[in-house]
Design goal:
- The protein is mostly helical.
- Among the domains are: about 220 residues, Serine Threonine Protein Phosphatase 5, Tetratricopeptide repeat; about 60 residues, no CATH class.
- The protein has a two-stranded antiparallel ribbon. The protein has a two-stranded antiparallel sheet with strand order 3-7.
- The N terminus is likely disordered.
Length: about 550
């Protein structure tokens, strides 16, 4: 096959979402999903995904070979790198936080930042996540039978594929639960156009328990330790990717003021982080200070990457980071820019301040000061050489950033957060000291060992961890969820809202009033989904707000 076959796009709207509009309420049959697997490194169409006729119907007759199962697994990844999905990972997890403020944002994006979003906004649609979920459901239900008809499709390979789709499905649900709270939980695939697909929401905390069960029963035992190439190993689900997701799920579960088993869940989070950090079969290793930005955020698939969504030139492009964060080479003005409050969190020697941010300076009376900021992480090629330098180089117009879900820093800093919460629950201050050591792995790396974190007051341990997570993971779609865990632990928005308010530059009293309710920290259920599915109910805060 010619390389041109790799560039064909999947047919749009093949798989309905959990609240499809009325005239499409019932599932269509699956049409054959044809895609370019984002991690391909050669020009052959036979590496990971074989192209099939675009008009074939993926019904029960389709599931005859392991190659066909492989194609469906590849389609899960293809839809995960859809820009509508990446956009929402940034919108929902980053743009509401104290890391950024709007610059040339749209009205809806401003409403999102200002906690003034309505259910009519297109930013809260979730159909693309449910599209991935439904493909995963098809593989889970139909792949096992293929072993009976294709002798070359081994149970080991089938189990590897099932681990991938269970994990991708769980990841999608995890984004939905953290963003909306209660969401429809569906584990059966579409079987025909006549199937009724209207379901109500399942409580978010119950979904988290289901996801943990799936990961521990199917995801982890079946996961591949690695794949044949480095790009596959970092760009497909592996055992350590499952462990990272499990650690994250347990951290979220434990961060619930009503959870009487929180200590046990924090220990589980730590156990999974330790399993990653102590995995003797893994090649994961942190990059050195002077290599970190280039290897992790420009080149991608670095030695510290656990799982990232891969993009390739001449394939599906990551336009999300350029559109939202800006890239002058691509003629993209930033819709959002870093806050001065974030920049001030970095210390004197911290290279992340001028690597993750593009800093503008002014000099007065011989003193140089930072005066403007742009997001450089992801869209940057070469960061500045140091404070005061402006020799930034952006990606070219044909260069696309991979989107990182988990890297080694996650394992260290999720463990650190679990440790400081255990210190409070179990009264063991040694946990706080261990948390300092975890934070110093990333902090000292960024400061070239010229500075380190210390703790003289154990009551400040949680703040230390959240600050280091903020410095390390800014613009990666994690900060809002970090603050959400704090809100859930405390059963109050007060302290987390103080963090947001310190960086908020618009009218503050109205903003604080909106976010005084915990329910307002979740997103509204899309009006489109509500109209299509009468079994859905609106999140409590927005139900009152939009009366």
């Amino acid at each position: 096959m010619k390389r041109a076959c790799l560039l064909k796009r999947l047919r749009n709207d093949l798989i309905p979402h959990a609240g499809y509009r009325t005239d499409h309420m019932k599932h269509r049959l699956f049409y054959l999903l044809t895609a370019v697997l984002f991690v391909l490194t050669t020009t052959s169409c036979n590496d990971y995904l074989t192209l099939y006729p675009e008009d074939d119907i993926v019904d029960d007759q389709y599931w005859q070979t392991g190659d066909q199962v492989q194609s469906m697994v590849a389609a899960c990844y293809r839809y995960m790198i859809d820009n509508d999905v990446i956009n929402r990972m940034i919108y929902w997890g980053e743009l509401r936080s104290d890391n950024v403020d709007y610059s040339s944002a749209s009205t809806d994006e401003k409403y999102l930042k200002d906690a003034n979003l309505l259910s009519s906004s297109g930013l809260v649609t979730w159909d693309k996540f449910y599209k991935v979920i439904n493909i995963c459901n098809n593989v889970i239900v139909k792949a096992p039978a293929v072993c009976q008809v294709d002798a070359n499709f081994t149970t080991t390979t089938m189990h590897n594929y099932l681990s991938e789709v269970y994990t991708l499905r769980a990841l999608c649900y995890f984004y939905l639960v953290r963003s909306f709270g209660d969401v429809p939980y569906v584990t059966v695939p579409s079987k025909s156009e006549q199937q009724n697909y209207l379901v109500t929401q399942t409580p978010g905390d119950s979904i988290i328990n289901y996801l943990i069960s799936d990961m521990e029963k199917y995801g982890l035992p079946y996961a591949a330790a690695s794949w044949p190439t480095e790009a596959y190993t970092h760009g497909r689900i592996t055992r350590n990717a499952v462990r990272a997701l499990l650690a994250d799920l347990y951290l979220w579960k434990a961060s619930n003021i009503n959870n009487t088993q929180a200590a046990s869940d924090y220990h589980s989070c730590i156990d999974y982080c330790n399993a990653i950090l102590n995995d003797n079969e893994s090649t994961l290793v942190m990059n050195e200070t002077n290599e970190m930005y280039h290897n992790v955020f420009y080149a991608g698939n670095s030695t510290e990457s656990i799982f990232e969504l891969n993009f390739v030139s001449n394939g599906l492009a990551n336009n999300s980071t350029a559109t939202i964060y800006g890239n002058a080479v691509k003629s993209k003005s930033p819709q959002f820019i870093p806050t001065g409050n974030l920049y001030e969190l970095y210390g004197t020697y911290d290279c992340r301040a001028y690597s993750f941010l593009k800093v503008g300076y002014s000099t007065n009376a011989g003193v140089t000061s930072a005066t403007s900021y742009n997001v450089f992480k992801y869209e940057g090629q070469n960061p500045a050489a140091g404070f005061g330098s402006t020799d930034y180089v952006y990606r070219s117009s044909t260069s696309y950033a991979n989107w990182i879900i988990y890297r080694l820093s996650d394992a260290y800093l999720m463990k650190a957060e679990a440790l400081v919460e255990l210190a409070k629950l179990e009264g063991n201050n040694d946990y706080s000291n261990q948390a300092v050591a975890m934070c110093n792995v990333t902090y000292k790396r960024a400061n070239n060992n010229l500075d380190s974190l210390s703790l003289t007051d154990n009551s400040k341990a949680e703040e230390m961890v959240l600050n280091e997570r903020r410095r390390e993971f800014c613009f990666e779609g994690k900060r809002w969820y970090d603050l959400m865990r704090k809100v859930r632990r405390e059963g109050s928005t007060t302290e987390a809202l103080d963090e947001l308010s310190a960086a908020y530059e618009q009218e503050l009293s109205t903003y604080k009033a909106r976010l005084s309710s915990i329910d307002a920290w979740y997103l509204p259920i899309s009006k489109t989904e509500m109209n299509a599915n009468p079994k859905l109910y609106q999140n409590a805060y927005y139900s009152l707000k939009e009366q």
